[in-house]
Design goal:
The protein is an alpha+beta fold and 335 residues long. Helices cover 28% and strands 24% of the residues.
């Protein structure tokens, strides 16, 4: 067990004054440690594809969903100890594709290998990893993608969290590529990815896959036009536009639930789909499938207004396999 192995390693260094053990590595009230790193809200230019102006388009009456496969991942983080007062980040990552059969029961199509899930994350330029490796604990350089800009414990911790998030993204992308390799557009299987399609799919051709984006820190129209998006009624979508970039997706907003008396983003999602003519033809139909996925409701999750139940099922399944907070803290209790 990773937690026990890490506890043994820290016991072996109990007389090292540079090591400071954190016996309560999880923040109060935060058991899962699922990270959502904030980014600066921004506006980028979406390219109109379907219509020149933004307006609400009714998608019609809900029909039975044809989505069959659902991809999501989880991450958990903590700071089990400090090396020379710099935090060492523990990260657990996993991802899964769950498949719904004709009887609407959920099974597992594929899951990331178990040995890829638990790691320590430190900036190798600041924390020498050799003793961690000698203890046969997997360790990753948190500065793989960018350097820590300042020797500050909070900056080091944030860099570790970012590295965990990137690793989870790579696991999800690996599963998405495997699914695309094994399925053709002519198959009667459709994949829903929790998040941006272009983040995980390096393919701008036709495929039976969409991404559902629940956060709206990036908006794709000047605010006068974006206000029309925010005014969408339940069951209405925006016209299709293309997101920027070499692998830009066809995208549109959809209001899944009425937001009368609620936040302007309540029930609002953004869909990404392959930038091919078939997507334009199917935008209403795909939206109706998503409207059908509103039941059962994903309570008690706080994101229930935008979280379809099969994606919640992915998260619940992965959490059932993840090491628990109690197991990890119990391993540290004797240090």
């Amino acid at each position: 067990m990773f937690g026990g192995k890490l506890a043994d390693y820290l016991k072996s260094r109990s007389h090292d004054p540079s090591v400071r053990v954190n016996r309560h590595p999880f923040p109060d009230g935060e058991a899962s440690g699922h990270i959502t790193l904030s980014s600066e809200p921004t506006t980028v230019k979406g390219e109109p594809v379907e219509r020149d102006r933004v307006e609400g388009i009714s998608v019609g009456q809900s029909s039975e969903s044809r989505f069959t496969d659902f991809l999501d991942g989880i991450e958990r983080t903590s700071v089990p100890y400090f090396e020379s007062m710099l935090p060492v980040v523990y990260g657990y990552t996993s991802a899964v594709i769950r498949r719904r059969d004709a009887g609407r029961s959920m099974g597992t199509w594929s899951i990331t290998p178990t040995h890829d899930r638990e790691h320590l994350f430190v900036p190798f330029s600041l924390v020498e990893p050799s003793s961690i490796r000698e203890a046969q604990l997997p360790v990753i350089d948190s500065e793989q993608h960018s350097k820590v800009t300042a020797v500050h414990p909070m900056a080091v911790q944030e860099k570790g969290y970012q590295a965990v998030e990137k690793l989870r993204g790579r696991l999800e992308a690996q599963l998405a590529r495997e699914w695309i390799r094994d399925h053709k557009p002519s198959d009667d299987r459709w994949l829903v990815i929790d998040g941006s399609l272009t983040e995980y799919v390096d393919n701008d051709g036709d495929l039976n896959a969409i991404g559902i984006v629940k956060s709206h820190r990036t908006q794709y129209f000047p605010f006068e036009e974006q206000k029309k998006v925010l005014a969408l009624a339940e069951g209405e979508r925006s016209p299709v536009f293309r997101t920027p970039g070499r692998l830009g997706a066809y995208s549109w907003y959809l209001r899944l639930r009425p937001n009368t008396g609620r936040d302007i983003y309540f029930g609002l999602v953004r869909i990404e789909a392959p930038p091919v003519p078939r997507t334009l033809e199917m935008a209403d139909e795909i939206s109706r499938w998503l409207m059908a996925e509103r039941s059962p409701i994903s309570l008690p999750d706080s994101r229930w207004d935008r979280l379809i139940y099969p994606i919640r099922d992915c998260e619940q399944y992965l959490r059932s396999l993840a090491p628990s907070r109690i197991m990890i803290e119990a391993a540290f209790s004797g240090i």
